[in-house]
Amino acid sequence: MTVPQPEQVRLDLPARYTYLHLLGDCIADMLRLLEQMQDAEMVIYNIQLAVHEACTNIVRHAYENKGEGRILITLTLAFDPPQLTIELQDTGKPFDAASYEPPDLDDVPSGGLGIFLIRNLMDDVTYTPVPGHNHWSLTKSLLMKGI
Amino acid sequence: MEMKTRLVDKVNIVDIIGRFDANTVAPVAAWLEQMTTKPGCRVLVNLSETTFADSTGLATLVQAMKRAQQHQGEIYLCGMRRSVYMTFELTRLDKAFTIFADEEHALKAFAK
Q: The pTM is what?
């Protein structure tokens, strides 16, 4: 039996909140190719939320919400093993990973939940600053029914 | 996102329909600020038709709750879908808010 080649979608969006909902539809359409995915609707929602939070951070912090800049997004759905990887690239300010402090959930946080959600909803999250741009990679392994 | 506001039994209710996120939060935040600065306010956020809520939406609700408490008021949430509720659980905000299954139960709680 041959394994299908990974499905890949590339998007190049202006770094504005207005367009981020487009990602959600794209993620859902790609994941519905996996007909036997466990808890599909919940998994789709969680990935949509994590990617949305990552893009919101890029708009708000990397580009300081000035309505400028772009986000290059590559979504890759692999089938064996099934997993979705979302790579995000921007040319804004680097993310200051050293000064990031996770929110204190015992103290009813009113901010700083974005990175927390990304890390808790995805299996693997990496941030790599390279000269001229920032690169995020978010990966989620997908479980199939009966496996 | 569409936002509808109503007054039922002296409770100010907002229905948030569709996406409640960084792109759509502004009118809800403005309305909540107006309502929760009234002394003894009673505010209900109906999320039964909210299809998506991000951390900006959650932060807006937390700020409203803290403001309501400062003014001896109360803010309840109701009608959350499973996916939205999961985010509240993950961030432990399900413990911070008073959450009801539907509007009827929330209004009964306000009436007590």
A: 0.95
